[in-house]
Specification:
With 125 residues, the protein is α/β, with parallel strands linked by helices. The chain has one domain (6-119): Response regulator (Rossmann fold). Helix content is 39%, strand content 21%.
Length: 125
């Protein structure tokens, strides 16, 4: 993957943010992390983000609300939602709203990377 492919990660768990940033960098992506949705939305990196990974349950604006706001604003960033709280109805609504994936923590690195590749058009769905 080209170094300029930016993956942005929004999660309130610092250790998970840092681990995912390390994983992204280890496979050749550029990665930036944010503790909340509002920080990501205010970032100058929003327009150059190729894929967004967002926790569903974070303080302030949730990952689902962040996804809805991006869609409402016409922003086409592919979004992968992650959560530690399984909820089939929420998963179904998020996928129907256009999220690329809804992964349960702890997830397998290969599963996450596979979904990122789908989001970036690297592999067929």
């Amino acid at each position: 993957m080209p170094k300029q492919t930016l993956i942005s990660i929004v999660d309130d768990d610092e250790s998970l943010r840092l681990a995912m940033r390390g994983l992204m960098k280890s496979v050749g992506f550029s990665a930036e992390v944010f503790a909340c949705a509002e920080d990501f939305l205010a970032s100058p990196l929003l327009p150059v983000t190729a894929c967004l990974i967002a926790d569903v349950q974070i303080p302030g604006m949730s990952g689902v609300e962040l996804h809805h706001q991006l869609v409402s604003a016409g922003n086409r960033i592919p979004v992968i939602l992650i959560t530690a709280y399984p909820d089939d109805a929420a998963r179904r609504r998020a996928l129907e709203a256009g999220a690329i994936a809804y992964l349960l923590k702890p997830f397998n690195d290969d599963d996450l990377l596979s979904r990122i590749n789908v989001a970036l058009g690297q592999t067929p769905i």
